[in-house]
Design brief:
mainly alpha, 76% helix
Length: 159
């Protein structure tokens, strides 16, 4: 079609490099998150809850290996998800630190919200524990993003 207007897509880091950067950053962030989770009273409960939901068992009866796999798989895939959200944010608002931090806040809300609204209610955990579990999950998610975001931001600047 002659004269068709093409959308202007801002130039940015090559996705073929940025998505692997997100994956690498996610691995590092998950390892740091593990350290934080180990220090919180309910910190190690969320992976067991996820495994329990998947197997329809109580978290204390969930297979630890499955909990570990779910934790690392989710942690690893959240890095590329952040990169994808970052591309969307950059398309809407332009690249930069403010956009990156805004996308990080959106991802934090998604991480906490998905766990608190979708996963946790399907678990067999007593209601009296849910508040402390969500609090510790939120602290763990913040620790994850405190590592992930700077690595992706700095790495993207270098790409």
């Amino acid at each position: 079609m002659v004269g068709a207007v093409q959308p202007v897509v801002p130039a940015g880091p090559d996705p073929a490099l940025r998505f692997p950067l997100g994956l690498l950053a996610a691995v590092v962030a998950t390892l740091v998150m593990d350290q934080v989770m180990a220090r919180l009273p309910e910190g190690e409960t969320p992976p067991r809850i996820a495994a329990g939901v998947l197997t329809e068992t109580h978290p204390s009866d969930a297979v630890e290996r499955l909990a570990t796999v779910v934790h690392y798989l989710a942690g690893g895939l959240t890095g590329p998800l952040f990169v994808w959200l970052l591309y969307a944010g950059e398309y809407l608002a332009g690249p930069g630190l403010v956009t990156t931090l805004g996308v990080a806040v959106v991802l934090l809300a998604l991480m906490i919200g998905f766990f608190a609204v979708v996963v946790l209610p399907r678990s067999r955990v007593r209601n009296s524990r849910r508040g402390s579990i969500v609090r510790d999950w939120a602290l763990s998610a913040v620790a994850y993003l405190v590592v992930l975001v700077p690595i992706v931001y700095a790495g993207s600047e270098l790409l």
